[in-house]
């Protein structure tokens, strides 16, 4: 699996690059805050849902979770590769690195942080 950092992922978004961004956290965490344009497939569900929600195994897929300490995205990336996805990227820094870089998030609690 390949890796991305926050700066490179931001460039991909700014360039409107064609890829799928997958938040691997539970739905409640996704609803509170997620990266722009992300879809939510929790890591525990990736084997079941990926074939249906990510039908093109040749497309670029970027997975992330909360931070470098979170293992969900790495596990999801490994599972996607086992399923035959050819272009899987792991944004290991996750929401924490994204937020610390000053990049925007979407969700019900964005802007409500104390």
Task: Describe the model.
The protein has 114 residues and is an alpha/beta fold. It has a single domain (2-100), classed as Rhodanese-like domain (Oxidized Rhodanese, domain 1, 3-Layer(aba) Sandwich). Helices cover 36% and strands 17% of the residues. The chain has five helices and five strands; from the N terminus they run E-H-E-H-E-H-E-H-E-H. It has helices at 6-14, 27-32, 46-53, 72-82, 94-100; strands at residues 2-3, 19-23, 39-40, 60-64, 87-91. A five-stranded parallel beta sheet has the order 1-5-4-2-3, sandwiched between helices. It is globular and about 35 Å long. The N and C termini lie far apart (36 Å).
Number of strands: 5
Coarse shape: globular
**Uncertain regions spanning at least 5 consecutive residues:** none
The SS-based structural class is alpha/beta
In DSSP terms (H or I, runs of 4 or more residues), the helix count works out at: 5
CATH class: Alpha Beta
Q: Supply the CATH architecture.
A: 3-Layer(aba) Sandwich
Q: Secondary-structure element order, as H and E?
A: EHEHEHEHEH
| C-alpha Rg (nearest Å) | 13 Å
Mean pLDDT: 95
CATH topology label? Oxidized Rhodanese, domain 1
Largest sheet properties:
5 strands, parallel
**How far apart are the termini?**
36 Å
């Amino acid at each position: 699996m390949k890796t991305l950092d926050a700066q490179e992922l931001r460039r991909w978004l700014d360039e409107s690059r064609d890829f799928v961004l997958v938040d691997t956290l539970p739905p409640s965490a996704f609803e509170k805050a997620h990266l722009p344009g992300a879809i939510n497939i929790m890591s525990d569900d990736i084997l079941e849902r990926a074939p249906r929600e990510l039908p093109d195994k040749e497309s670029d897929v970027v997975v992330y979770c909360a931070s470098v300490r979170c293992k969900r995205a790495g596990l999801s990336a490994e599972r996607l590769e086992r399923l035959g996805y050819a272009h899987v990227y792991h944004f290991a820094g996750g929401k924490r690195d994204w937020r610390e870089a000053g990049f925007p998030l979407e969700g019900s609690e964005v802007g409500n942080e104390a």
